[in-house]
Amino acid sequence: DFKKYKSFIIRNSGGDFKRTHFRDAFMTQLAAPTGIAIQAYQPAVVFLNGEYWGIQNLREKISEHYLKSNFGVDKDNVDILRHNGVARHGTSRNYKKLLAFLRNQDMTKDETVAELRTFMDVEDFIRYNIAETYSDNRDAGGNIRYWRERNDSAKWRWVFYDLDLGLGNDRPNGYKHNTVKKFTTAHAEAWPDPAWSTFIIRSLLKNEKLQTQYINTFADHLNTVYKEETAEALLDKMKANVSDEMQFHVKRWGTSYENWEHHIEIVRECIQKRPGYLRQFIQEKFDL
């Protein structure tokens, strides 16, 4: 929607290259109605020095300029972090205070949660975590971006991005994967889901009211934005948008149109079957 960009990304779809070529964009656009931060998407035909380079995906670059455009914040006064508190812009001091609060305070108490809400957007994080869980993102523990404006009333919020390894990529039956359990459990593994990456959601779920909020929000999203028919309609729309050009793109990169359609059908099966499995996983996790 913006007419001017300080910078942007021309992306080859990462781990989804030579597959659907828009897994990441599909998942972020699907989750957009939940209100979580995403990168805008526009496929483009790219030429480098006159040489055809196929379809590349124009995406917003997650930076202080992105935050200024999308959230109206002061670009010179924001903290943007990645991974386990690594500062991309600004500092991680305030985020370390957030982690210390979750470690040292009694999260079962509602008054603790009320204080937490003054410097963390709890609703935003729950929506973000649900989006990661739905997508079966096998890189969720590593590729994390979060931010806050640097003032006394600001709250930490998250950016949903880099979903190339979700929705059945390298694992066609990924819709069966119990990420409800995986993303709410402490693991000793270094990757993809180390203990630090699940620490915040595990802390929130200690509180009974937040647990109910998590369950109800998940149910609402499964019945609306992640509803099978809604997801399929978006998949078909995004497929049609690049279908004509894809015959030239696959020739450029040594694959086939049939292979492209095959991987889209893997995504289709995932979005058709995923909600049913997730309802089962939620029931098991919370003994419903």
Question: Mind sketching the topology for me?
Answer:
Layout lengths: L7 E4 L11 H9 L9 E8 L2 E10 L3 H8 L6 E5 L3 E4 L3 H12 L5 H7 L5 H14 L9 E5 L7 E3 L19 H4 L12 H10 L3 H15 L5 H25 L4 H30 L2
Helix pairs in contact: 9-10
Verbal overview:
This protein is α+β, with helices and mostly antiparallel strands and 288 residues long. The chain has 10 helices and 7 strands. 47% of the residues lie in helices and 14% in strands. The model has no long low-confidence stretch (mean pLDDT 96).
Cross-sheet strand order for the largest sheet:
5-4-6-7
Q: What value does the Rg take, in angstroms?
A: 19 Å
Helix content: 40-55%
Structural class: alpha+beta
What's the short story on this structure?
This protein is α+β, with helices and mostly antiparallel strands and 288 residues long. 47% of the residues lie in helices and 14% in strands. The model has no long low-confidence stretch (mean pLDDT 96).
